[in-house]
Write a structure and sequence with these properties.
By secondary structure, the protein is of the alpha/beta class. The chain has helices at about 15-20, 25-30, 55-65, 80-90, 105-115, 130-140, 155-165, 185-200, 255-265, 270-280, 285-315, 340-350, 375-390; strands at about 40, 100, 120-125, 140-150, 150-155, 170-175, 205, 230-235, 245-250, 320, 330-335, 350, 355, 365-370. The chain is globular and about 55 Å long.
């Protein structure tokens, strides 16, 4: 006979790791912005009208005639896709130096799991990408904040921490058109950070989703060109379509090997069909460069429209730098608590991300992040007018 259920079964107890993971403020905001009439400048969603759905549909029609396109695949990724990444990489790498991941978010999680144990110290941008902070905290890391200024992560500030005895296992930075500030780490700072990595033994994790969307300023080479103590992450989420969930990492063999083994236990491999679809379109001669060349003016126009609207609606109350690319504009509002401002903005029919969520210690409450990527210029102007009404 089956055992009788206990009359007073104890509640299900989650692991300490699960209990320590905070929900993404941005994902929570996306649910809120599904309400009718809300203009969201919160999430960094690419413009849907830029997705190459026609090319993907054409590729799918051909690919799905072959059952291999939906069969299991190797953990490392489709050879054709790894070859394409290696060929476009400015570093001297081959396909064996590339691991295809389920978005660059998975790549970051695999690296953190490969290099850290619970309680280890890691250093990261502050303000920094919220998704990275989630990964670090979910893996039980102690996060050491390194300030970001107008030139990105400040290696001199990191050096002070290192000289004081801090020993991070890795340093995470979104070094090009950073999320959330839009800053770019110049070559001199990259060399300084590399020198610190080689002196103190940490690994640099450079997350690079946005550099293809640059329209102004110099794009420095990734730090994998300067040292073998760096890993470079990138993605198709901002250039093809985020729903493909395709990213990749390039880095030292021992790191990629460990990440590959961890990936095997997580999902076996990145979806085969997504890999075939992407490889089919990007491997057409000149196609990817033409596609990206069409994206950049769209985002440049929208960034300009948002900046102009902020100047009109908020005047000298708002301080920000003109975007050089990417998807975000970081705005400082002196004397304004943007956590308290958000519900008033939602009442006016718009949403943004408060600056505090980009810090591990809740700082940054007088700043906010606006995304210009999803909405067209007239709608961005209306969203900014609603923000001004909330401030009033």
């Amino acid at each position: 006979m089956p055992a009788e259920p206990l009359a007073s079964a104890s509640p299900i107890v989650l692991s300490q790791r699960a209990q320590g993971v905070r929900s993404s403020a941005i994902r929570d905001l996306l649910k809120l912005t599904e309400q009718p009439g809300i203009l969201s400048l919160a999430g960094g969603l690419p413009a849907p009208d830029t997705f190459p759905t026609g090319a993907l549909a054409e590729a799918a029609q051909t690919l799905l005639a072959d059952p291999a396109t939906v069969q299991y695949a190797t953990t490392e990724g489709l050879p054709a896709l790894r070859e394409w990444v290696a060929a476009r990489c400015v570093a001297d790498v081959g396909p064996d130096d590339v691991l295809v991941t389920t978005g660059s978010q998975q790549g970051l999680d695999l690296i953190v799991r490969a290099l850290t144990d619970g309680g280890d110290t890691v250093a990261a941008d502050s303000p920094g990408y919220l998704g990275a902070l989630q990964v670090l905290q979910a893996n039980g890391c102690r996060v050491l904040s390194v300030p970001v200024d107008e030139d990105g992560l400040d290696p001199a500030a990191l050096e002070v921490l290192l000289e004081a005895g801090e020993r991070p296992k890795l340093v995470y930075t979104c070094a090009s058109l950073q999320n959330p500030t839009g800053t770019t780490l110049p070559t001199a700072r990259r060399r300084h950070l590399v020198a610190l990595a080689e002196r103190y033994g940490f690994v640099i994790v450079e997350d690079d989703p946005y550099s293809a969307l640059r329209w102004a300023g110099e794009q420095p080479d990734p730090m994998i060109t300067l040292t073998d103590r760096a890993v470079w992450l990138s993605t198709f989420s901002k250039t093809l379509a985020p729903g493909l969930r395709l990213g990749w990492m390039v880095g030292p063999g021992e790191v990629l090997g460990a990440a590959t083994r961890l990936k095997q236990s997580a999902d076996l491999h990145t979806p085969t069909l997504s890999q075939h679809l992407a490889a089919s379109v990007v491997s057409r001669p000149g196609w990817f460069d033409r596609h990206v060349a069409g994206l950049v003016p769209v985002y440049q126009q929208r960034a300009g429209a948002l900046a102009a609207a902020l100047r009109v609606e908020l005047g000298d109350r708002a301080t920000f730098a003109e975007p050089a690319g990417g998807m975000f504009l970081w705005v400082a509002l002196d004397g304004v608590d943007t956590d308290a401002l958000l519900p008033r903005a939602v009442e006016q029919g718009m949403a943004f991300v408060p600056g505090s969520v980009f810090h591990v210690d809740g700082r940054g409450s007088s700043a906010l992040r606006l995304s210009f990527a999803t909405l067209d210029p007239p709608t961005l102007a209306e969203g900014t007018a609603r923000l001004a009404r909330a401030l009033a």
